[in-house]
Records
---
Amino acid sequence: MSDQIKNKVSDYYADKLKKFGTTAQGVDWNSEESQVLRFQQLCKLLPEGRDKKFTVLDYGCGYGAMLTFLLGHYPEIKFVGYDISEEMIQVSKKLFPSKNTNWIWNEADLLPVDYAIASGIFNVKMDFLESDWLAYVLRTLHTIDRLTLKGFSFNVLTSYSDKEYMKDNLFYADPNFIFDYCKKKFSKHVALLHDYPLYEFSIIVRK
């Protein structure tokens, strides 16, 4: 089931990229503004200070939008971008050819990093059963946990969304369940951020 999900997700985002190019809509976000707001929440994981040096993995990097945001705050970082869409990785390589960046399509090639950030990779469940999608989400979190030395952050659409705006093809998670799962499985140091004006929440796991 996991491979089937990955294949459909890859096709979904390849189609978005073809239609909208390297824009927020190209990775299925509504706007550049909401994309930046998400980055701000997720990057609360990272240490403060422009002189900080660390490695960070953008797990589900799309066309690399987060790299631009990160370099504005952390010019000394080493960045790894991973995406299951080969088209996204090829575009990212052309947009960001820096020696301090590494773009990876094969998950088996990923090596441990200090931090990992995953933005929006759990939202579009398409026609999969909610139980199958949740199992996929949790398996992916365990993968990210294994790849990180100091911590990771991710976001998910919230089950507290207004019912009239919820869509059948999207996945809305119970933030209490996800928080509890991360506390029990990954670390005692977990933060749940649900106080910003989007229909989602962010989780920060520090090791």
---
Amino acid sequence: MSTITLITGGSRGLGRNTALNVARKGGDVVLTYRSNESEAENVVAEIQAMGRKAAALQLDTGDVSTFADFAARLKAALETGWGRETFDNLVNNAGHGDGALVTETTEAQFDALCNVHFKGVYFLSQTLYPLIADGGRVVNISSGLTRFALPGYAAYAAAKGAVEVLTRYMAKEWGSRGITVNTVAPGAIETDFDGGAVRDKADLNTQIASITALGRVGVPDDIGPMIASLLEPDNRWLTAQRIEVSGGQAI
């Protein structure tokens, strides 16, 4: 039986790349999108073209009040598309960037970052726990910025740091059901994150490459395949770990 992986924010960037790599490994995918339905449906079509099943559901991971309704819609989609009441893997990927120095961060910026990157991950995982199959996998996406500091990302990195702590507690509490929980922390990646800064600003790109052991910044294909491999049965004994995938940035 094929596995079913739920990927939040799976319509673009690292989420999209992860979804496609899960499908390439023979898995089925449910992905979420916040507002761009057509973009999400394009990813669904790409996965279906590989011969795998896929579905897209709308979700704002920063709005906890919608999670119960989302769980009901997810359960209906699982029953309709797969004849199942559970899914196997959860990838908490959805997020956004909004940089500001500590002295200039507004409460609205702080709340928006924490709602999506920490509170949303916490309560969405809680809500979906009954729908995760025994022996499943959870991957929470963090950031290299929890290890090294780049001025302007304090609130974002702090929220990601909270997720890394949460990961260990989830692994401890959910291990009795055979569910593994790990963190993947990408370094700088060429996506549209934070307005595409790493991808589009040549000076920034060059600067990051100069402090990275492998001599370049990352691309989505450096991350998606790694996350997909982490969901494989062979990784059944790996849990409560922070795995940085940065090409050796700032070491």
